[in-house]
């Protein structure tokens, strides 16, 4: 089969190599899956660089979430067992962790429903306890993680403010349903949020960016607001001023979704059932901006790493070269 492999660490576009390799053999409790679609996540780029908390042995195949097909024809969502990731024609995954792919979504959309939406659901509902009528601020609202949070926030009855970089991403954020869109390249984010909220600030802030975005969050959060720290796509890990959190009376909440797979897997299943229900009634639908063939995976991962994509980019092994849409 064909699979992308990383033999040395570096930028995805430079270190990912497409090779002919043997199909992975399932271990105890694992199943072999035919990859129908593999969604690209920022951690895939971080793994190529050796900057992610999970560091698979070299050589490894990136690709942390897929929609796959079991040998008996079932369509499932899975996190492949590294080092045999999803940017390949076949992958293996733990049988106990397989989730049914929602009928309402195609393969690319189903693959994109998992990590980003689970992270959004846990962040907004489990950690921040977002309530209907509250204001939610989402950084990088047009990206893969942010777009999921926007849809989940709207489904929860919140007023959603989306922060983006550039006019094209602002248009995407509006289409996703943001009530207010702030272009950080053209506007003062803090001032815009204060204006949109009558000076109060945002009740919940969802931050997958870090760096300057976190500094803006601390200034734009409301009394008794909650800042959910999801990741650091900017490459800069902020150092929160705890005295500021104290005097302004807000909470800083960390979220590492992967921990729930070991700490409370039943809650992951519960979340998937909720997400499936939301997808069935059209309340959420992953924004898949591109569907690329397997041969285009390295370039696509690099573009995700560079922050120039919107929504999700999916790799479909069944697509022929040049058939991306």
Uncertain runs are none
Q: Please give the share of residues in helix.
A: 25-40%
Q: Can you write the helix and strand succession as a string?
A: EHEEHEEEEHHEHEHEHEHEHEHHEHE
Number of helical segments with 4 or more residues: 12
Question: Which properties best describe this structure?
Answer:
15 strands, six-stranded parallel beta sheet, seven-stranded mixed beta sheet, globular, 325 residues, alpha/beta
Can you summarize this structure?
This protein has helices at residues 12-15, 42-49, 107-112, 115-127, 144-155, 167-176, 189-196, 212-220, 242-248, 260-263, 265-280, 297-305; strands at 2-6, 16-20, 30-39, 65-69, 75-78, 90-94, 99-100, 135-139, 159-164, 180-183, 202-207, 221-229, 251-254, 288-293, 312-316. By secondary structure, it is of the alpha/beta class.
Task: Explain this structure.
α2 (42-49) crosses α12 (297-305) and α7 (189-196) runs parallel beside α8. α12 links the parallel β14 (288-293) and β15. The mean pLDDT is 96. The chain is an alpha/beta fold and 325 residues long. The chain has helices spanning 12-15, 42-49, 107-112, 115-127, 144-155, 167-176, 189-196, 212-220, 242-248, 260-263, 265-280, 297-305; strands spanning 2-6, 16-20, 30-39, 65-69, 75-78, 90-94, 99-100, 135-139, 159-164, 180-183, 202-207, 221-229, 251-254, 288-293, 312-316. The longest helix has 16 residues, at 265-280.
